[in-house]
Design brief:
The complex is a heterodimer of chains A (388) and B (135). Chain A is of the alpha/beta class and 388 residues long. Chain A has 14 helices and 12 strands. Helix content of chain A is 36%, strand content 18%. In chain A, strand 11 and strand 12 form a beta hairpin. The chains are: A alpha/beta (388), B mainly beta (135).
């Protein structure tokens, strides 16, 4: 299997981009990535793009060729990948395999979502499509409600507290103030999180990732070619992907995301590392409880001790494992289909030592963890400054 | 999203009678029709009547409503563990949000779920309500 390198990254400002369309956002991020890699667009051999639900949000399907067309990738293959919030993480994984197999030498992976053209209740209904339409959302379950069910079980089984959930939001908002592309540029307090309106109890508005417009793009190539484009390539050391039941109620214990456990087991094995070797991680904090459960299921701490891990400050920038220095889905923003690649953009910047005020000093190994739905999909990548 | 008539019709009997699937080989039960057992992969799966009582495994009160529940909430959603261990997702009715708790015994209640459109069909399904001790 050939080794893979990331040689270019680009991302739009995340937020409410009223004046921009889906295609505009994508082209903005893609141009940024090409410029970063000092690459001509005709060097790209294929496009992989993550997108959750352009059909529901803006009435557009078939976004692969649409985006290839607007980027002038004439006749190049363009794949659209859909795995709910893990869409572009999965797109990135397919692109890695295309490089690793030798099929392509240089590919672009992007992700894009344009969510603010429809009302908030409509967005809630679109989010719910990531779950079981017939046996969950038919009866009124929403995505935040599903994670609220998980949070309440975690409270009962492990004694996790609402204040500990709020600390995830506090940390990620603080980090986002150091990221100029983040949607939110303000800090919050535990008290403010706990007094913000309830979305689905025990989750408050400030426990939930926002509705966001945005796009991100990266350029991958075989490791042999990397130095031609950049002095600071970042290498893919390992990855893992897994699925789990579509309905939350079909799992024996909803406080563990089995797909996260399985995907991380694969990724650690392939990279030849252990959780303690990770310096910086972009984790899927779609809700504050998701970040806490992820600490546990990724082996960053013992099962049930995720609440303690945030409370002790172990995941602050410069802590034992710096988690979500970008601000995470919570505060950088969560344009669903763009999130997985936005995580890669951040880890590449961190490993290049180019993350500005939020730089994790001396970061050598980084991880991205992207979850779809209630954990029905999980895709993990591990990156390093050095080749394996 | 608002389901259309064929989708409602396809599963109507399952939802109206609370029928489930049970693997003949390993005994795993699930709500809804399956032809392959999700636990052991066997194709010997039969349709069974699920029990109409259980307890609340986890719950939440939904305040941010999806478009099709416009004007309806806040409402309680729960995962109910039926007496045979099968878990399903359902709304809890006839119960104040302050009174719901994990472990609470509940029973089946056949209720209206929604309406396809202003002049479209009305559709039904299961909800659950607290069991009131009968004296």
């Amino acid at each position: 299997m050939r080794e893979i390198a990331v040689v270019g990254v680009g991302m739009t400002k995340f937020g409410e981009r009223w004046d921009k369309q889906l295609r505009d956002l994508f082209v903005e991020a893609a141009n940024e990535a090409l410029k970063d890699a000092n690459m001509e667009r005709n060097e790209i051999q294929a496009l992989y793009v993550g997108n959750f639900s352009a059909g529901s949000f803006v009435g557009q399907e078939h976004v692969g060729p649409l985006l290839a067309d607007y980027l002038s990738l004439k006749y190049k293959p363009a794949f659209r990948v859909e795995s709910a919030c893990a869409s572009s993480g999965m797109a990135f994984n397919l692109a890695c395999m295309a490089i690793a197999s030798g099929m392509y030498d240089i590919v672009m992976v992007g992700g894009v979502e344009k969510m603010t053209d429809i009302s908030a209740p409509e967005v809630t209904s679109v989010h719910a499509k990531a779950m079981d339409a017939e046996w969950e959302s038919f009866f009124g379950l929403t995505l935040p409600a599903a994670f609220a069910l998980i949070a309440r079980r975690h409270f009962v089984q492990y004694g996790t507290k609402p204040e500990q959930l709020a600390m995830v939001s506090v940390k990620n908002h603080r980090n986002a103030t150091k990221n100029p592309l983040a949607q939110f540029q303000f800090e919050v307090t535990v008290e403010r999180v706990l007094t913000s309106p309830i979305v689905s109890d025990p989750l408050h508005v400030l426990d939930c990732s926002p509705v966001t417009d945005g796009a991100a793009a990266v350029i991958l190539c075989s490791a042999e070619l990397a130095k031609k484009y950049t002095d600071t390539p970042v290498y893919v050391l390992g990855f893992g992907t897994a699925s789990d039941t579509i309905a939350l109620h079909d799992r024996s214990d909803i406080t563990t995301l089995g797909a996260v456990v399985e995907a991380s087991r694969q990724a650690y094995k392939m990279a030849g590392i252990e959780p303690k070797n990770i310096d910086v991680a972009e984790l899927h904090d779609s809700f504050t409880i998701t970040e806490i459960i992820s600490y546990e299921d990724l082996g960053f701490c013992e099962k049930g001790k995720g609440g303690l891990m945030i409370q002790e400050g172990e995941t602050e920038i410069g802590g034992r494992i710096s988690v979500n220095p970008s601000g995470g889905l919570k505060a950088r923003g969560n344009p669903i289909g763009a999130t997985g690649v936005a995580q890669v953009v951040e880890i590449v910047q961190q490993l290049r030592g180019a993350a500005g005020k939020r730089q994790v000093s001396g970061a050598e190994i980084g991880m991205t963890q992207n979850i779809g739905g209630t954990g029905s999909t999980c895709v993990i990548h591990i990156f390093g400054r050095q080749r394996r | 999203m608002m389901p259309k008539s064929p989708r409602i019709w396809q599963l109507a009997e399952r939802r109206y009678r609370l029928l489930g699937s049970k693997c003949v080989l390993c005994g795993k039960t699930s709500v809804g029709p399956r032809s392959i057992c999700p636990a052991c992969g066997s194709d010997k799966v039969e349709t069974v009547q699920l029990p109409s009582t259980g307890t609340i495994y986890s719950y939440t009160v939904v305040h941010s409503l999806p478009a099709e529940k416009n004007g309806y909430g806040p409402y309680i959603m729960a995962i109910v563990a039926l007496e045979d261990g099968t878990k399903l997702t359902a709304e809890i009715v006839d119960c104040d949000p302050e009174d719901v708790k994990i472990g609470m015994p509940v029973e089946l209640a056949f209720r209206l779920i929604g309406q396809e459109s202003e002049h479209g069909i009305i559709y039904y399904g299961y909800k659950f309500r607290p069991i009131i001790p009968r004296t």
